[in-house]
Amino acid sequence: MMSTKTPAKLALFAAFTFMAQAIHAQAVPTATQGLRLSAFGGPTGTYTNFEGGKNGSLTLGADLTFLTTPYVKPSFELRGTAPVDAGHISGQFNFLLGPRVEYPYHRLHPYADFLVGRGLIHYQNGGFPYNGLLYISSTSFVYSMGLGVDYDLTNRWGVKADFQYQHWHTPFFTFDPIHPKATTLGVTYRFDFNSRHHRNRSKH
């Protein structure tokens, strides 16, 4: 059976690249940035909540902040997770999007998010037998509630700690629903579409 790992990773990369290019093409240099785009990525450890399985995965994502207030920053988040090591029971792929609210405090940026999307479970060892059938994979609607914090190292680079509590459905009565728990430690990068404008203004 063809592995789904490579197509999933390529799809995630293509989606994030397209989003970054689209926002960059529409950005207009102004004194302040109405839209702000940041990207993040890092390793994710997932407790799958299915037969005690665990995944070692890679998460990539992006946040588009569309409004800045003195106290909170609402954003739209897009992220995807694909297992690098699916273990011996099941590998969980997911692609999620939804709102995020951040409360900036100096270099710290604690946040909460609520994401929805689609997930794929690929069962290892040739499939999962249940009621006389052998299941190779199954799909599910997924929603995820998360908390995290970003810490600025520089104006553009930072580090991230993120936790997601998820809800999935499976075809198996005994294991439905399941609630995977995913923890990501990664890096963040903030794009600055007005850097040329800032340099020109500093010359005057």
Describe this structure in words.
The protein contains 2 helices and 10 strands; from the N terminus they run αββββββββββα. It is α+β, with helices and mostly antiparallel strands and 204 residues long. The protein has an 8-stranded antiparallel barrel. The chain is elongated. The N terminus is likely disordered.
Q: How much of the residues is beta strand, in percent?
A: over 45%
**Secondary-structure-derived class:** alpha+beta
* Overall average pLDDT: 84
Number of strands: 10
Which blocks of ≥5 consecutive residues have pLDDT under 50? 1-32
Distance between the termini: 63 Å
Order of SSEs? HEEEEEEEEEEH
Quaternary structure type: single chain
**How many helix segments?**
2
Strand order of the largest sheet: 1-2-3-4-5-8-9-10
Task: Record the SSE blueprint.
Elements: H1 5-26, E1 36-47, E2 54-65, E3 73-85, E4 90-102, E5 108-123, E6 128-130, E7 133-135, E8 137-152, E9 157-167, E10 181-190, H2 195-203
Antiparallel strand pairs: 1-2, 1-10, 2-3, 3-4, 4-5, 5-8, 6-7, 8-9, 9-10
Put the structure in a nutshell.
The protein has 204 residues and is of the alpha+beta class.
What key phrases describe this protein's structure?
15% helix; eight-stranded antiparallel β-barrel; 204 residues; two-stranded antiparallel sheet; alpha+beta
